[in-house]
Write a structure and sequence with these properties.
mainly alpha; 2 strands; 68% helix; 6% strand; elongated; transmembrane; Ycf36 protein
């Protein structure tokens, strides 16, 4: 007789599929599942709000009346720091769940950190979890990697412009 998903000894909240569903539905992580257009709007929205902190700091260093280009470059870079931290949190969260789903074994804790156990997934669970990784999580991780690459390109362009001005 083959083991089914219901024979899983892992507590419900520690099962990789449930961790995935919880992450996908959480307010912070669900934005990564939006269409590219809506995702991009959210990224720019967060970056724009980061200017509330970055703008005054940049203005103190480079008064906009005297050094408008340095002010814009400095403020843009500073506003991106918050965005990078958020993107790192998103990437690490999705990466963790991807690893838990992709692994043929699941480490779990029964009642605390001192009594960890390992459960070997049956083949049907491994197949299901790997399909989720391939079709749901990998595109999200690729989207975040593209976002990081775009930010790195913007930093590079900003640095070049800074030295040319």
């Amino acid at each position: 007789m083959r083991a089914s998903v219901f024979d899983c000894p892992v507590p419900t909240e520690q099962q990789p599929l449930n961790e995935y569903e919880e992450l996908k539905n959480s307010w912070l992580f669900r934005d990564t599942t939006l269409t590219w257009g809506n995702y991009t709007k959210k990224i720019f929205w967060i970056w724009g709000w980061s200017w509330l902190v970055a703008g005054p700091v940049a203005a103190a260093s480079f008064p906009p009346q005297k050094h408008i280009f340095y002010f814009i470059l400095c403020g843009s870079a500073a506003a991106s720091v918050g965005l990078v931290l958020l993107l790192m949190r998103l990437y690490l969260g999705w990466f963790y769940v991807r690893d838990r789903l992709y692994s043929p074994t699941v480490f779990y804790e029964e009642s605390g950190w001192y009594d960890g156990q390992t459960w070997t997934k049956p083949q049907e669970v491994i197949s299901r979890d790997r399909l989720i990784v391939t079709y749901e999580i990998k595109p999200i991780l690729q989207r975040l990697q593209i976002t990081f690459a775009g930010l790195a390109l913007m930093y590079l362009i900003g640095t070049i412009l800074w030295h040319l001005l």
